[in-house]
Amino acid sequence: MPITPTKKIWMDGQLVDWDAANVHVLTHSLHYGSGAFEGIRAYPTERGVAVFRLRDHIERLVRSCKILMIDCPFSVDEMVEACKEIVRVNELNDGCYLRPIVYLGYGEMGLNPLPSPVNVAIAAWPWGTYLGDDGVANGVRTKVSSWQRHDPNAVPTAAKSTGAYVNSSLAKVEAIKAGYDEAILLAPDGKVSECTGENLFIVHDGVIYSPLHSDQGSLEGITGQTIERIAADQGVEVRYETLIRSDLYLADEAFLTGTAAEVVPISSVDDRVIGDGTPGPITKKVQSTYFSAVRGEVERYDFWLDYV
């Protein structure tokens, strides 16, 4: 989906013109993929634009840096305020997508990243539905990828790291070229992990199931945590268990969650129709509540919103 440029990008504490927000060709992270990033959304509400679960995202960014042994030069509070500032400065009152990134800059080369300078940038721009409006309304077609998710002892899957997403890109391209909307990756042991950039949930006999994050190499998603809370408040149990491929085929409902994708029903997996091929009742209920919550329409979830 094309990016619509805005006026300013926050770079190391300074507001820089969009077209001037450049890095050197020998930037360390460009060559070796050592960096951490987040995807965050802001939404319009009756009280003005609000960033959804901003602090939770920035805290996860800092945790990713710790795993990668990157010493982030800005505090959580500083980056939270920087995110708000970039939304304000760019007058993104109708909502936007934010991309904070911590990366290793220019000045050192080689596989030892420790001497490299650490830089931080935050961009924000208007960004529509990641998997399309039709996918949100009617569901997406998925396939199990031939590419496996990383083993957590090969690449630390608890970190949202830049280089690790080559794995996701390969799976995404394979799915798109085969005529599907999204890919599902399996862990090295053959158990279900997650989609290319989203957590995966299925519904069976009124219970929501999702793969174990630590065992199956999936990122512990903030949107997934949000849905877990919403489902619990609606009296629906969420269980994190080992899932195998056939569990997907036999699910009553299935959906995926992620900041960019939000909450999207799955209509089929490997050409096996899920349920009757339309979004199921539990999926529609948690999805509807989520979209209301992010827009400040559910008072009990207002604590998730950072008003700009």
Topology:
Elements: E1 8-11, E2 14-17, H1 28-32, E3 35-37, E4 40-43, E5 50-52, H2 54-67, H3 76-89, E6 96-104, E7 118-125, H4 133-138, E8 140-144, H5 166-177, E9 182-186, E10 192-195, E11 199-204, E12 207-210, H6 213-216, H7 222-233, E13 238-240, H8 245-249, E14 253-258, E15 262-269, E16 272-273, H9 281-294, E17 305-307
Parallel strand pairs: 8-9, 8-15, 12-13
Antiparallel strand pairs: 1-2, 1-7, 3-6, 4-5, 4-6, 5-17, 6-7, 9-10, 11-12, 11-14, 14-15, 15-16
Describe the protein's architecture and organization:
This protein has nine helices and 17 strands. Helix 7 crosses helix 9. The chain has two domains: 8-125, D-amino Acid Aminotransferase, Chain A, domain 1 (2-Layer Sandwich), CATH 3.30.470; 133-292, Alpha-Beta Barrel (D-amino Acid Aminotransferase, Chain A, domain 2), CATH 3.20.10.10. By secondary structure, it is of the alpha+beta class. The longest helix is centred in the first third of the chain and has 14 residues, at 54-67. The mean pLDDT is 96. The chain is 28% helix and 26% strand.
Portion in strands: 25-35%
Give the SSE order as H and E letters. EEHEEEHHEEHEHEEEEHHEHEEEHE
Proper CATH architecture of the largest domain:
Alpha-Beta Barrel
Shape: globular
Q: How many strands appear in the DSSP assignment?
A: 17
- Give the overall pLDDT as a whole number: 96
> CATH homologous superfamily name of the largest domain?
D-amino Acid Aminotransferase, subunit A, domain 2
Number of helices: 9
Assembly annotation: single chain
- Structural class comes to alpha+beta
Low-confidence stretches: none
Rg, nearest Å: 19 Å
The CATH class of the largest domain:
Alpha Beta
Query: How many domains is the backbone divided into?
Result: 2
